[in-house]
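(Protein data)
===
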Amino acid sequence: MHARRAVLFAGLLLAGYLCTVGFASAAATGAADSLPTRIADDDFWRMVTSFSERAGTFPSDNLLSNETTLQHVIPDLTRTVKPGGVYLGVGPEQNFTYMVALRTRMAFIFDIRRGNLALHLIYKALFEMSEDRAEFVSRLFARKRPEGLTAQATIAEIFDAVARADSSESLYVENVRAVVNRLTKQHTFVLDAGDLLRLQHDYRAFHLYGPKIQYSSSRNEGGRDGEPTYSDLMMATDGAGQLRGYLASDESFKFLKQLETDNMIVPLVGNFAGPRAIRAVGQYLREKTATVSVFYVSNVEEYLQQDGVFPAFCANVASLPLDEASTFIRSVRGRTTDGVFTLHSALTPIAPMARDCRAD
């Protein structure tokens, strides 16, 4: 059984890497009308706590993506997946870029690390408190907002100006206090001491390294050659020259700000092979007669294979409400021409794997 699933997994990766289109069916994807347009604070926090599982560990903080080609699949993705659906994902900010491209109606973010939950709560507070991209980026890195940046400023202009802006320990402390107050006093979310420490740990890394922060900054005292910085990721394109990052336009920022304000991006602590998180989301979506449009899994499946728990993940996926257009966004290991490690994004349909798991 395990060998069969391993072969299927490898085949799906290869198929998605070689050809990212051609598998969408005539079935419509997207959220049904029974999904809410806004979730009350109490219900949001109840979902966060009751859907989540016991936290696990991962070798890095994973405070930002290291996937430089994550936008390359977006043109095909938007041709095969109907907008306005339900998005599932893992990890930090790259999810926002996919949500913007798909005009996601509701999203759930799983991660085995509770630190990722803290990070998404930081993002939630910053989106809500910021009026525009310049304010958001300034707050994200605890920098003084530069003068003269308008809603029409390019993302390059914003990041260049923020990188040169003043920063201080007092500004960092002021921003942390504002984030915590937003979450615990306005939303009345119950954060324990561990959550507050994780939040401060994550936010301090952004304050310390600024827009030059990298995936491995918190492990290697600054970063690693060849890894993209936050600035690099935000100024990357879809391979055809179009900026599709979540901060590329004021419109994209406002779209995400509204999602966060309406509590429609729900971060969860969950192992892909765990007993609860994915299945709880599946049950919720079935009750709302909604289907999963996209599941961004990055390269997590590699670790599940290594740990011998891929069948449990497969069974969890099979429990989700899907249709023939439901799509995985995967990240496939590779090397650049000069031998540098990289991850290539690829699209594959979810339904064949789900059917195989149900057959077993």
About this structure: The CA atoms of residues 146 and 161 lie 6 Å apart. Strands lie at 86-90, 106-111, 265-269, 292-298, 327-335, 341-349. Confidence is low (pLDDT under 50) at residues 1-32. The chain is about 45% helix and 10% strand.
